[in-house]
Design goal:
Blueprint lengths: L1 E5 L6 H10 L3 E6 L2 H9 L3 E4 L5 H9 L3 E4 L9 H16 L8 E7 L25 H9 L6 E7 L2 E3 L6 H12 L2 E4 L5 E6 H14 L4 E5 L2 E5 H12 L3 E4 L1 H7 L3 H7 L8 H7 L8 H7 L9
Parallel strand pairs: 1-2, 1-4, 2-3, 4-5, 5-6, 6-10, 7-9, 8-12
Antiparallel strand pairs: 9-11
Length: about 300
């Protein structure tokens, strides 16, 4: 299969591109810069110059492919409506060339769209008033193509997709601990986050492209819920810092933004049982706390 990929040089993208190439697929990745193009080529993929706002480039990439994987997401988190608009427009542009073809269109979302306080499944509706409601428009834009002859599906990734050279939520938590001298959690820290290793997520994306039925909503989750207190305690012990509980108001100023504070206090366990059964996906890589203990997260920063 010739797959057109957006976000192939981002946090999870290189692992996905490498997984697809290793499985015998041909990959072309969207590249905004010479550095991104070189990175894609180093992974065995071809580079297609353009950006999410270059709709002609997106359309051409999709038209030339046997399937599309959309992982890129950008914009200003202070303007979530604009981020949602850009993402929806990109998905609609990528999907139209695939209409009535039966080709796959797999779009990335996140499990933070799900309701708080209970374990959600793939069949549950996302929370239209929740912390990540701005991702819902993209999900719906993708799934709408299922009625137009596209094998459309959504992969909701855990908020922490961990592994070497991570630059997501967990490294930001560690950086805040280093800067403030305390490893913090919100309230009693019993709130739960799903987690998945990047290499396990890459396998899921490949399986979704290869065989997920139209209309599939998949959860990229290896662990359904790791408490944020347990994460903070590992960070504290490894850095030789105390742990501290923050109120939501204190968290809003302690962490880098109110959004990050809300995310670190979010309780959102998620099941991936249906995803595993549907695709035969079986995560095998290290768990999050094991990765914190033995991975590169808490290495001494270079000076």
């Amino acid at each position: 299969m010739h797959v057109f990929v957006t976000g192939g040089t981002g946090q999870t993208g290189p692992a996905v591109v490498a997984e697809l190439v290793a499985a015998g697929h041909t990959v072309t990745g969207l590249a905004r810069s010479d550095a991104a193009a070189a990175r894609l080529e180093s992974l065995g993929a071809a580079a297609h110059r353009g950006s999410l706002d270059d709709l002609d480039s997106l359309r051409a990439g999709a038209e030339a492919a046997d399937g599309v994987l959309h992982m890129a997401y950008g914009g200003d988190f202070s303007d979530p409506d604009d981020m949602a608009r850009r993402d929806r427009t990109a998905i609609e542009t990528l999907g139209r060339p695939l209409e009535r073809s039966g080709k796959p269109l797999i779009v990335t979302s996140g499990t933070l769209v799900m309701p708080a306080g209970r374990e959600s499944t793939e069949k549950d509706e996302p929370d239209a008033t929740g912390i990540a409601a701005f991702r819902i428009a993209g999900e719906r834009a993708c799934l709408d193509f299922g009625a137009r002859g596209v094998r459309a599906g959504v992969v909701r990734l855990a908020p922490t997709v961990h592994g070497p050279e991570d630059h997501g939520f967990i490294p930001m938590l560690i950086a805040t601990a280093r800067a403030t001298g305390v490893s913090a959690y919100v309230g009693d820290g019993a709130n739960r986050w799903p987690a998945v290793h990047r290499l396990d997520a890459a396998v899921l994306f490949r399986l979704a492209l290869e065989k997920a039925p139209a209309g599939s909503v998949l959860h990229g989750v290896a662990e359904s819920g790791v408490t944020l207190r347990s994460v903070a305690e590992v960070i504290a012990r490894r850095l030789g810092l105390p742990t501290v509980s923050l109120t939501p108001a204190e968290a809003a100023t302690h962490f880098v933004s109110p959004f990050m504070a809300a995310a670190y206090g979010f309780d959102g366990p998620v099941s991936s049982s249906r995803t595993r059964e549907l695709l035969g996906w079986s995560p095998v890589r290290p768990a999050l706390l094991e990765d914190l203990e033995h991975g590169d997260y808490l290495a001494v920063p270079a000076t």
